[in-house]
Amino acid sequence: MSPLAFCARNGRWLLVAGLPVAIAIPPLAIAIRPLLPELVALMLFLAALRIGPRRAVGALHELRGTALLALCFQVAMPLTMLALFALAGVETHPAALALVLGWSASPIAGSPNLTLMVGGDPAPSLRLLIFGTAVLPLTVVPVFWGLPVLGSAEAVTASVLKLLATIGLAAGLAFALRTWPLRELTDKGRTRIDGLSAITMTVMVLGLMSEVGPALIHRPVELAGWMALALAANLGPQLTLAWLGRGKVAPATLPALAISAGNRNIALFLVALPPQVMDTLLLFIGCYQVPMYLTPLIMQRVYRQER
User: Fold this and answer.
1) CA 251 to CA 176: how far, in whole Å?
2) Where do transmembrane segments lie in this chain (predicted)?
3) CA gap 220, 96 in Å, rounded
4) How far apart are CA 129 and CA 109, in angstroms?
5) How many Å is the maximal CA-CA distance in the chain?
6) CATH code assigned at 88
7) Which domain holds residue 259?
């Protein structure tokens, strides 16, 4: 078995193994941290390369119902939360910023893979991923405007344009490759891309958790608070969707919707928002990787009960 095939087959355990490594070796995590924007762009590229333009367009044709769901996830959820925080007068608190930004993000690129790992149908999560990522530069506008910590209107516009450029370049290059040199992906080609994705995500988690190791030693109470918030932000929507969808959504479809609701690509904002804003959220982003990468292990029993 080739190394990439091995990584593809054991991707779930590779991701899980990255969590303790990131915590145990802070210098490694800190060294990778400056590369996070490039790694995020690479993950977008690999996801688009795996999907291909024809499958993406095919999925978009089936997005009538999914579009409404994606807008609920990326607009209704964060704006509702932002309104509640504003009423409480805590909209500028880092925890409020973390939740609002996290829920305004599109699903992670690995959401279809996570859905497969729990035995669900990955097609709905693929549609949510494609549509959510495509419209993200538009859906974040009202959310960004409602966050005073992001600065002036010009700063918000610049962040949106930077996000749009990143998504457009990554997906455009991938789709261009799938149009000619990689028009038809073989099973071996898909496996290699899956292996590269697993490796990229594992390296990403090292950088994303650069704050967790030091916090475990010097700020354990603060770390516990951020970890609790990350667990609630990730597992809360999954459990809520699993409960609300019982008997109303096809059992094979429900895991895809719930996983997409809870696992959001907040790291994508690392390429768009000012570093001084994202630096305050790095500990939350690091903690958020724990329920994200443990979703197949933690939630498998819940989704099995729904089928």
Assistant:
1) 36
2) 12-29, 65-89, 95-116, 128-147, 159-177, 198-217, 223-244
3) 20
4) 7
5) 57
6) 1.20.1530.20
7) 3-306
